[in-house]
Amino acid sequence: MKRHSKWMRWGVLTAACAMMAAAPAMGEEATEAASAEQTADLASVGEQTVLSDTLYDFQIQIDGTVYQFPMSYEAFKANGWEMDTDYTGSEEDEIEPNQYGIYYFSKDDVTCTAYVLNLGINNLPASQCLVGGISIDGFDWDVNTGEILMAGGIQRGVSTLEDIQTAYGTPTDTYEGDTYTALTYQKDSFCDVRLTVGTESGVLEDIEMQNFVAPEGFDAGEASDEVPEEIAAYQAPAELGDDLLSYTVELDGSLYQLPCPVSALLENGWTIDENNSDQVISAGSFGWVALVKEGFSFSEMVSNDAAYATSPENCWMETLSAGDYGMEAEMNLPGGYTIGMSEDDLIAALEADGIAYEVEDSGSYRYYGAGEDSWNMVTFYVYKDATSDIHPLDTVYKIEVSRENQ
């Protein structure tokens, strides 16, 4: 059976199992500095000598050596494990924040699978990440080879279903198949142990353990003040133009080409509301920034495409809108589209320009959307409630322009 590397991105984790993560590659100097510092901090993570009696301490003892997950890659490798680069990439693979890789490791005549994860805020090579768990199965590791112990005296190749349930209690989930029964004990998302007992053998054969929680005192790294090359290269458009789907926007008298850097708005008089903005945004991740200017204010999600963590001003603003309460700023789009135009004029302009659009009604509002998809869209909001005077009736009161950074 040919093996292959498998990459997965975490979804949103619960508070008890929350963690940091990594992405592509930062500026060379910033990357090297962060990597060196984090490597030193990780050196002792996961080092234990005595096997715990508690399953949710996420420990396993292999041939007399106790593994505590998560543990540093360095500590894991020091026990004799070598990454099988024929099938699962290499130690230089860059792992992004909130991502982990599944790799095969070999030692003597056995092979296991390990979960290599980045809990930091900067991209890191696999060799400088954490090992968040291990998977041992009979296909790559004969059940009679070596001594593998777990909390409460449970032993691979020896302990039965009854032994496991006596030691750990009722499992979170039980799967009964024709050839095996699997018991899952879950503390939280990505914090669980799965134990498989063979139907024929009647004993524990496979073990899968994950604990994707940052160790106490874990240093996630530092943000860089280096301006990403793409951000520095951004140039504001010289004119608004006539193409609505060029995603050019005039907001409060200034022109922007979406996506635009947050720094472009700062240059035009907007300031960051530090109390309502993320201070640091991880590599390859998203965060929130709140901007204020002369009585106007808005909050929007921004993206950091750099391989290192940075501040919001070095991130991409992919959406700009105006017309909501607190954001009654003037907004104009190519082709003469603007807040305050009538619904009839909007429809006439879209059809005259040959722009396809979709219409959706929602209570007091009607939405006109034009663009490629929900990530690349110009949306016009028209007020339809004749019983209220919150906004002018049958008039565009809000415009939202979104353009995904590609």
Describe this structure in words.
- By secondary structure, the protein is mostly beta strands.
- The chain folds into two domains: 6-211, no CATH class; 229-402, no CATH class.
- The protein contains six helices and 29 strands.
- The protein has helices at residues 28-42, 73-78, 161-168, 229-233, 262-267, 343-352; strands spanning 6-9, 59-62, 65-68, 71-72, 82-83, 94-95, 99-107, 110-117, 124-125, 130-136, 148-150, 173-176, 180-188, 191-198, 204-211, 248-251, 254-257, 260-261, 271-272, 286-293, 296-303, 316-317, 319-322, 331-333, 337-338, 358-362, 365-373, 376-383, 396-402.
- It starts with 5 loop residues before the first strand and ends with a strand.
- The relative contact order is 0.12.
- Mean pLDDT is 90; it is low at 1-36.
- Keywords: Signal.
Short account of what is shown:
This protein is mostly beta strands.
Topology:
Elements lengths: L5 E4 L18 H15 L16 E4 L2 E4 L2 E2 H6 L3 E2 L10 E2 L3 E9 L2 E8 L6 E2 L4 E7 L11 E3 L10 H8 L4 E4 L3 E9 L2 E8 L5 E8 L17 H5 L14 E4 L2 E4 L2 E2 H6 L3 E2 L13 E8 L2 E8 L12 E2 L1 E4 L8 E3 L3 E2 L4 H10 L5 E5 L2 E9 L2 E8 L12 E7 L4
Antiparallel strand pairs: 1-7, 2-3, 2-11, 4-10, 5-7, 6-9, 7-8, 8-10, 10-15, 12-13, 13-14, 14-15, 16-17, 16-24, 18-22, 19-20, 20-21, 21-22, 23-29, 24-25, 26-27, 27-28, 28-29
